[in-house]
């Protein structure tokens, strides 16, 4: 029997307030801190810093700059890494366009590197090959590397950092989807020379829109804030010696962020609980694979739970057929990110491919995973997948 469309739309990942956000916003109004700096911004940055270095003294040196978007954080990371017009920057191909767009803001060219099939993230061996091949072809080193922890699944950061160190190339780690994930016991976002977080409405926590740059020390954090506030020099008048940006986070948004930090651990636990339930309920479904942690070294936040489908084992069921079916039930699912090397806007960018991300794109689907999704929702969704996969 086909269930009726849910009267309540089930979203992939919809923001969820703790109830504490309003208090911080009210404080900002009461004290007239309705500007892109203030007590909420300071407190939100400190709380992110605590979260990322909690129980991990090797991360104590990190400092956070809260900004207006994850995309802005990546852009600032590239600026601080020294990326200039005419440079090449290596970027994971299997990602959201926001990983690659800031490369072009700098007048640089993205060079895309494909994924490995266990993590779905940048293939370290292909990265190493791509760097040597770019040097052979252009006579110059790429000026930065952007790996991504897609859907919150950690990339193999130790391997990637070893290759980056060998070639002496800075890494801007895109952890927009990976707040709460860790790899070999360290928080995602803390491996690269810089790390980028996102607090868009659909991410692990939200500030309505916002992001943060994870910086290696106080000095580079000050540099990031300098570029995020129009690169104003310290003179009594407005003196500018660099091009700057208006990228700082508003004290109102940071108030939302402070409230969200009080439920971050709960959100992460909820995403992981749903992922474990999907994994166990789907374990015996032939032709449907849950994307699980590939080894005990990875501890994903499961921002989105994802599956791949083999139509030859599911009576020809395709991910898009499944998506349309769920849409008719008022349930949001989404095809996996279309790799950047397949995007018309990046058709001229060099790409090092191995078939992994294009294959995942054709086989995969993201399932509802956020704080409003219940265990009953997951059971119903899986029973629909089972029904359609065994036609
Ligand atoms: C969301 C996202 C970003 C950008 O973050 P915004 O806050 O939306 O600008 C960057 N990279 C990835 C992989 C993302 O999912």
Automatic annotation (TrEMBL):
GO biological process terms held by the UniProt record: polysaccharide biosynthetic process
Database matches in Pfam families: DegT_DnrJ_EryC1 (PF01041)
Keyword annotations of the record: Aminotransferase, Pyridoxal phosphate, Transferase
Modified positions (N6-(pyridoxal phosphate)lysine) in chain numbering: 203
Family: Belongs to the DegT/DnrJ/EryC1 family.
PANTHER family: DTDP-4-AMINO-4,6-DIDEOXYGALACTOSE TRANSAMINASE, TRANSAMINASE
Protein name: Pyridoxal phosphate-dependent aminotransferase
